[in-house]
Amino acid sequence: MTRNEDQVAALLLAAGGGRRLGGRPKALLRHRGRPLVEHAVGVLRAAGLTRVHVVLGAQADAVRERAELAGCVLVENPEWEQGMGSSLRAGLDSLAGTGARAALVSLVDQPGIGAEAVARVLAGFTDEDSLVSAAYDGVRGHPVLFGAAHWAGIAESAAGDRGARAYLKAHAEAVALVECGDAAEPYDIDTEADLVHLE
C-alpha cells in the first residue's frame, strides 16, 4: 500500500464571501502577513498532503492574483453564494478521475487548526470506505476525511450551508473521531469580532 499522502487529496473550501465581515472574502483576510487561503494551503502541505484542490468563489480573480497558490488545483464554484454545500460538491467533482481514494476537507476560515490536527485525521485513512473526523472534546469538527465510496452520497446531501453534516449524521456509527482538542482550536472567522484571532 502506498502512503496516505499519495492517496488522499486535500480539498480546501475557500469560496465564501464573508457576508458577516462586510463582504470581504475570507480567502483574502490577512494572517501572518499573507492571505488566509495561502496560510491554509501551507497547513495542508505541512501535514503531508501534496495534492491540494482549492475551491474559490467570491472574488476568485482577486484571490488568484494576490495569493501564492502555485501547485494547487484551483476549482471555481460559480454557485458559491448558495453556500458551503455547493463548494463541497464542486470540490468533490474536481477529484473525479484523479485517482484520489479519499478527500480531506478543510475550511479556509479556521486558522486555529494547524498541521498536527490535519496529520492526525490523515493518519486515520485506510481505504475508500474511510470516514474520519477531527473532534474537539468529543464534538465532531474539521478537518474531515471522506473515502471516495462516500463522495456521491455526500454530494447528493450537501445543500445550502450544510456541507456533509447530514451525511455524517446519518453515518455516525462509521465515523472515526480523532481527538484534536489538545492540538488545535476550531474557531471560525465569521464576524468582525472573530478577527482578533488573525495575526
Order of helices and strands: HEEEHEHEHEHEEHHE
Name the strands of the widest sheet in spatial order: 5-4-1-6-8-7-9
Largest sheet: 7 strands, mixed
Q: Helical proportion? A: 25-40%
What percentage of amino acids are in beta strands?
Answer: 15-25%
CA distance, first residue to last residue: 40 Å
Number of helices: 7
Count every beta strand, where a strand is a DSSP E run of 2 or more residues: 9
* Radius of gyration over C-alpha positions, nearest whole angstrom: 15 Å
The helix/strand class is: alpha/beta
Query: What does the average pLDDT come to?
Result: 93
Mass-distribution shape:
globular
- List low-pLDDT spans: none
How is this fold's topology laid out?
Blueprint: H1 4-7, E1 8-14, E2 30-31, E3 34-35, H2 36-46, E4 52-56, H3 60-66, E5 73-76, H4 84-95, E6 102-107, H5 115-123, E7 131-136, E8 139-147, H6 151-157, H7 165-170, E9 176-179
What does this entry show, briefly?
By secondary structure, the chain is α/β, with parallel strands linked by helices.
Explain how this protein is built.
The longest helix has 12 residues, at 84-95. The model has no long low-confidence stretch (mean pLDDT 93). With 199 residues, the protein is an alpha/beta fold. 28% of the residues lie in helices and 23% in strands. Helix 4 packs antiparallel against helix 6 (151-157). The protein is built from 7 helices and 9 strands, in the order αβββαβαβαβαββααβ. Strands 5-4-1-6-8-7-9 form a 7-stranded mixed sheet, with helices on both faces. A hairpin with a 2-residue loop joins strand 7 and strand 8 (139-147). It starts with a helix and ends in a 20-residue tail after the last strand. It has helices at residues 4-7, 36-46, 60-66, 84-95, 115-123, 151-157, 165-170, and strands at 8-14, 30-31, 34-35, 52-56, 73-76, 102-107, 131-136, 139-147, 176-179.
